[in-house]
Amino acid sequence: MSAVAPSLQAFFSDRLIRQRRVSPHTLRAYRDTIRLLVTFAAQRAGTSASKLTFDDLDSRVIGAFLNHLEDDRGCCPRTRNTRLAAIRSFYRYAALQHPEHAATIERVLAIPLKRHDRTLMTWLTAPELDALLAAPDRRTWTGRRDHAMILVAAQTGLRASELTGTMIADVALGAGAHIVTLGKGRRERVTPLTDTTAKTLTLWLKERGGNRSDPLFPTRTGGAMTRDALARRLTKYQAAAAPRCQSLRAKNITPHVLRHTAAMRLLHAGIDTSVIALWLGHAEIQTTQVYLHADLAIKEQALAKAAPIDSTPGRYRPPDRLLAFLEAL
What we know:
Blueprint: H1 4-19, H2 24-45, H3 59-71, H4 77-97, H5 102-109, H6 126-134, H7 141-156, H8 160-164, E1 171-172, E2 178-182, E3 188-192, H9 195-208, H10 227-241, H11 255-268, H12 273-280, H13 289-294, H14 296-305, H15 321-328
Antiparallel strand pairs: 1-2, 2-3
Helix pairs in contact: 1-4, 2-4, 4-5, 6-7, 6-10, 7-9, 7-11, 11-12
């Protein structure tokens, strides 16, 4: 067995699980990246994955793998960069374990991230959110569950994994109603609930029953809902709500859109971005600045306060008939 296989095993068991204690979501993301990489490299080298060497995983192979992700698998640059970040993490670990491969590892670590366009985020306006909340059929058990789930997501701004991972024990109702969440980076935070959300959850928990260790929003079989299932539910309700609110047709509603919606509602209420960062569980306040960039109303308020530029409007008039002809083309 080559040096790569035992190093990969130690990277997952020692570095990620024991030392860093990464979340299951992060562990799966790293696992999928490495599995794709070693499968690609093994086919390229004509050997099995367990026999790969660091020479089989040099910068040229890593570069070809990243191109394969975009060209053959249809991944966007953001996904490419996420895969590269996982690969870099392994090679930084390998550099300490295998200094004899320092030159190969250094060239892999020098592979740059790919720049990409940063589009403005999407969120739901008040009429759009109302239409989405009205879409579930609350005459059914599933509809009542989904209505409560969408309401909690749009009010608290929980991530998809946080929402599906919330247990009954994480919810405290009554005075000071709140939800306790162990979020990204294993940071625990408490998110308060509005009276409407608390009343909805009170009714839902009475119907839902179960033990404190059970999921707050279970599937029909009682297990935790997956992120994909949550996304499918939102897609279904978007289609059902679109006839009532035409603007929903132009939006792709995902669990993260509900998170953005919660942040924008706080921003429009005049809440400082540092408080919004704490609310959402952001490690750095700079992450929350994206909501300022996306909010046109704030920019219009700033424009209204600025002194107008004194400039006389005018139109360019070519001094020659030929120039006028060319200008009109």
